[in-house]
Design goal:
The protein is α+β, with helices and mostly antiparallel strands and 758 residues long. The chain has 17 helices and 28 strands. Helix 3 packs antiparallel against helix 4, helix 5 runs antiparallel to helix 7 and helix 15 runs antiparallel to helix 16. The longest helix is centred in the first third of the chain and has 76 residues.
Length: 758
C-alpha cells in the first residue's frame, strides 16, 4: 500500500516520501520502489531500509521536465540522460506527487541567485538581453503592486478598527442624548472604510490581471524553448541515423562487388554480435526482452548467434536493406545527373492541403440524445453531426493505407516469414490513427464511393464502395505498382452499453503479392469507446488477430492487450509470434498500436519451469530487437482539426474528375467541415430520407416483379456498381471483389451509370 503523506498538499521545503511503481524493463515491468523527495532531488530505493546505505538513482528537479501521461502515470526526465516512468497507486496519490515535484522544482529555481539557472535563463535563451530587461521591469511593477496591497491592507485595518470603536460608542449612548455628532462620525469612518476597501479591491484586480498576463507570456516562452530543444534533439538523432546509414552504405558499396559471399557482412555481424553480448546494462534488457506474461517471454540470445547473424541470420539486412540502398543510390544519381532527360519531363506532384477549418465548440446535451439509445445498434441511431468527424467510413477505411510503405517493403522480401513480419506490422499500423479520434465517421449512403488516387506520389490506387445498407458493408480494393493488392469487406456490428460503445468489425482483409503469390488474410479487433456519458472519451483496441499465409501455412498470432487500471504493462501493448506451417516460432513482434512495433529473430526456444499461475511459458532467445514501424507525428494544430493525420487532412479535399457518388461530393459532410453544423444536420436528414425513399421504391419494384409476395427476396436487391460478390478460392471467404472499370470510366469522364444519391 502506498505511503500517505501527512498533508494532502505538500509545502515547499518538506521532505516527501512514498511508494511508487517505476518502469524497469519489459521482463519485470513496473516495480515497487521507495521514493524520497528532498532539497530538489528525487531519489529512489528498493526498500525503506536501503535509505541509509544504497541509493538506486537520483534526478535533479532543477533541470527536469515533468509530463503527466494519464490518471496514474507520469514521466520525469532531465533531457535524455535520465528518464523515470512512474505510476502511482491512484489518481489522488499521483496528484500529490506532481504537486510536491512542482513545488520542489519552483523552489529550486527561485533559490538560485544566478540568472543562468533560474527561470530567466529559460526565457532569455535565444532572445537577447531585451527579454531580461522586460522581466526585471515586470517584476518591479509587480513589486510595486504588492506594496500598494500592503498599504491598502494597513489602511483597512486602521479604518476598520476606528469604525468598530465608533459603532461601540454609538451603542453605549443613553436614550435621549444627542446622537447627531456620533452618527456623522460613524458615517465618515464608514465612508473611509468603503473607499479603502474599493482601493484594495482595485489593487487586487490590477495585480491579478498583470500577473495573469505575464504568466501566460512566460509559460508560452518556456514552452517554445522546450519545443525547440526537443526539435534539436530529434534533428541530432536523425542526423546520427543518416550518418550511420551512409557509412554502412559506403562500406557495402566498396566491399560487396569483390565477392558474392558477402564477407563484409559476416565480419560486421560478428563485430556487432560481440558488442551486443558484451553490453549487459539495463538498456539492452529493455529493448531486447519483449514480454507477454500470459504466453511467452523473450531473453537475449547467446552471443554465438550474434556472431553468425551477419552471414545466415540477418535476412532483413541482406534482402531489404540493400535493396533500399540501391534504390536510394539510383534516385540520387538520377537527381544529380544533368544529362537525364526524364528529370526535365516529370510533372510536379500535386501539393495536398495541410489544414482544414478548426472544429467549432458547440454545446450539445449528450444525455438527452443517448438515454433512449441504450441497447440499440449504432447504425440505426439518428445522430447529429456534433458526434461526427468530417469523413465518411469509406475514407476511414482508406486511411489503412497511411503506412503503405510496409507493404512495399514486404513485396521485396525473399522469405515469406520476413514478409509476414511486415504484413503484421501493417495490420497494427492501421489502428494508430484511432488513438485520439473519438468522432464518429459518417455512415456512407448506399452506392457511395471514395477513390484515393496516389499513383504518382505513392504508387497505389484505392477504391471503396458502400455495397450494402442493412447490414452496412463497405468493399475496398487497392493495388500498387510495387506488386501488392489489398482488398477487404467490412461490416460493422456495434452496441451502445451506456458507459461505453463497442464496435466489432466483421469481414476479412486480404493482401496478395504478385511476385511470390503469397496470399494473406486477417480480421480486425474490437474497438471500444469509453466514457460515452461522463468523463473524457478514450479509445481502446482489444482482441486477437491471426494473420495467415494461405500459400505457405505461415501464421502470425497478434494479441492486443486491453487496458487495465491495475496492469503494470505499457498501455496499448501488442505482442505477436510468427510461426511456420509446423508451428515453429521464427520471429517475435512487440510494441504498441499507437506508437511503434519492433521485431526480433528467434534463435532458440524452451519452456520455463515456473510460469505465472502454475502455467509453463515459452522462453524465446532472440537477437536484438529492431524497429519495423513507427507512427508518423500528427500535424501541427491537430487537436483543433479532429486529431487528423496528414493523410486524413487530404481525404476530403475537393478533386476534379471523381465520380458523382464520391464522398468528397457529400453535402452534409462538406458543410460540417466548413463549420456550418446546423446546415449540415438539416442536409443529413434530407439525404437519409432520400435514401429511405429509394429503398422503399426498390422494394416495391422487387415485389411487383415477383408473382407472389412470398417469392420476393427478403434481402436488399441493390447491386454494387464496381464490386461483385464472389468466394475466394484461397481463403474460402465470401466477399465483394473489384470487377474493374472504375479507373477506365474516370479516364473517359462518362459517369452516366452512377446513381443520384446526393
Amino acid at each position: 500500500m502506498s505511503s500517505e503523506p501527512k498533508s494532502p498538499t505538500p509545502t515547499p521545503g518538506d521532505t516527501y516520501k512514498g511508494w511508487l511503481f517505476k518502469w524497469t524493463n519489459y521482463i519485470k515491468g513496473y516495480q515497487r520502489r521507495w521514493f524520497v523527495l528532498s532539497n530538489g532531488l528525487l531519489s529512489y530505493y528498493r526498500t525503506q531500509a536501503e535509505m541509509g546505505h544504497t541509493c538506486r538513482g537520483t534526478i535533479n528537479l532543477a533541470t527536469a521536465n515533468i509530463v503527466v501521461e494519464d490518471s496514474c502515470n507520469f514521466v520525469i526526465s532531465n533531457g535524455g540522460a535520465q528518464t523515470y516512468h512512474l505510476k502511482a497507486s491512484s489518481e489522488v496519490e499521483r496528484q500529490r506527487w506532481i504537486t510536491a515535484l512542482e513545488l520542489a522544482f519552483d523552489t529550486g529555481n527561485n533559490s538560485d541567485d544566478s540568472c543562468e539557472d533560474g527561470p530567466s535563463a529559460l526565457l532569455t535563451s535565444g532572445h537577447g538581453g531585451g527579454r531580461t530587461l522586460d522581466i526585471q521591469s515586470t517584476l518591479r511593477t509587480l513589486g510595486s503592486k504588492v506594496e500598494d496591497l500592503d498599504t491598502c491592507n494597513d489602511l483597512i485595518v486602521k479604518h476598520g478598527s476606528a469604525l468598530q470603536r465608533s459603532l461601540s460608542e454609538l451603542e453605549g449612548i443613553q436614550p435621549g442624548a444627542d446622537v447627531g455628532d456620533k452618527m456623522r462620525q460613524v458615517t465618515e469612518r464608514a465612508t473611509l472604510f468603503r473607499i479603502t476597501s474599493n482601493a484594495m479591491i482595485n489593487a487586487c484586480r490590477d495585480f491579478l490581471s498583470l500577473a495573469q498576463n505575464h504568466s501566460k507570456r512566460w509559460q508560452k516562452a518556456l514552452q517554445l524553448e522546450r519545443d525547440q530543444r526537443v526539435r534539436l534533439e530529434e534533428t541530432l538523432e536523425q542526423l546520427a541515423k543518416q550518418h550511420n546509414h551512409l557509412e554502412r552504405a559506403f562500406r557495402g558499396a566498396t566491399v560487396l562487388p569483390s565477392s558474392n559471399s558477402n564477407p563484409a557482412l559476416g565480419s560486421k555481424g560478428a563485430l556487432s554480435g560481440k558488442g551486443d553480448s558484451s553490453d549487459e546494462d539495463d538498456n539492452n534488457v529493455f529493448f531486447d526482452a519483449m514480454e507477454e506474461p500470459a504466453e511467452f517471454i523473450t531473453v537475449p540470445a547467446d552471443p554465438k548467434y550474434h556472431r553468425r547473424s551477419g552471414s545466415n541470420v540477418s535476412g532483413f539486412s541482406n534482402e531489404t536493406g540493400m535493396d533500399d540502398l540501391s534504390v536510394n543510390f539510383d534516385e540520387l544519381s538520377m537527381a544529380s545527373s544533368p544529362e537525364s532527360p526524364q528529370s526535365l519531363e516529370l510533372e510536379p506532384v500535386r501539393q495536398r492541403r495541410t489544414r482544414i477549418p478548426d472544429k467549432p465548440n458547440y454545446y450539445l446535451n449528450l444525455w438527452s440524445i443517448m438515454k433512449n439509445c441504450i441497447g440499440k445498434e449504432l447504425s440505426k441511431i439518428p445522430m447529429p453531426v456534433n458526434f461526427n468527424e468530417p469523413l465518411s467510413m469509406l475514407q476511414r477505411l482508406s486511411e489503412d493505407l497511411e503506412y503503405y510503405e510496409l507493404l512495399d517493403k514486404a513485396s521485396k522480401c525473399q522469405s515469406s516469414l520476413e514478409q509476414m513480419c511486415y504484413v503484421a506490422a501493417f495490420t497494427v499500423s492501421s489502428y494508430s490513427t484511432t488513438v485520439h479520434r473519438t468522432g464518429k465517421p459518417f455512415n456512407p449512403l448506399l452506392g457511395e464511393t471514395f477513390e484515393l488516387d496516389r499513383l504518382r506520389e505513392c504508387g497505389y490506387r484505392s477504391l471503396c464502395e458502400q455495397v450494402s445498407h442493412h447490414p452496412p458493408a463497405a468493399a475496398h480494393h487497392a493495388f500498387s505498382e510495387k506488386g501488392w493488392t489489398l482488398r477487404q469487406e467490412i461490416t460493422l456490428a456495434s452496441k451502445f452499453r451506456g458507459k461505453y460503445l463497442s464496435i466489432m468489425p466483421l469481414g476479412a482483409i486480404q493482401c496478395m503479392f504478385a511476385k511470390s503469390n503469397n496470399h494473406y488474410s486477417w480480421k480486425k479487433v474490437t474497438t471500444t469507446v469509453h466514457n460515452i456519458i461522463v468523463g473524457k472519451l478514450w479509445i481502446d483496441q482489444s482482441g486477437e488477430i491471426d494473420v495467415v499465409n494461405h500459400k505457405t501455412g505461415d501464421r502470425c498470432h497478434l494479441k492486443f492487450a486491453p487496458y487495465s487500471y491495475f496492469s503494470r504493462d505499457v498501455p496499448r501493448k501488442v505482442t505477436g509470434v510468427v510461426t511456420d506451417k509446423d508451428g515453429k516460432a521464427h520471429y517475435v513482434l512487440s510494441g504498441t498500436w499507437d506508437e511503434k512495433m519492433e521485431f526480433s529473430r528467434i534463435m532458440q526456444s524452451s519452456k520455463s519451469e515456473n510460469g505465472a499461475e502454475g502455467k509453463q511459458r515459452t522462453v524465446y532467445q532472440t537477437l536484438k530487437a529492431k524497429e519495423i514501424w513507427r507512427k508518423n507525428p500528427l500535424p501541427e494544430g491537430a487537436e483543433t482539426m479532429y486529431f487528423f493525420s496528414s493523410l486524413a487532412l487530404t481525404l476530403n479535399e475537393p478533386e476534379e474528375g471523381v465520380a458523382p457518388t464520391d464522398s468528397r461530393r457529400r453535402p452534409d459532410q462538406r458543410l460540417m467541415e466548413d463549420g456550418q453544423w446546423d446546415e449540415a444536420n438539416a442536409e443529413k436528414q434530407r439525404l437519409e430520407e432520400k435514401q429511405r425513399m429509394v429503398r422503399r421504391e426498390r422494394e416495391r419494384e422487387v415485389i411487383k416483379a415477383a408473382h407472389t409476395p412470398d417469392e420476393a427476396p427478403h434481402q436488399d436487391s441493390h447491386q454494387a456498381l464496381w464490386f461483385e460478390k464472389t468466394e475466394d478460392a484461397q481463403s474460402g471467404e465470401t466477399l465483394h471483389v473489384y470487377k474493374g472499370g472504375y479507373w477506365e470510366t474516370k479516364d473517359s469522364g462518362v459517369w452516366d451509370m452512377c446513381p443520384d444519391i446526393f
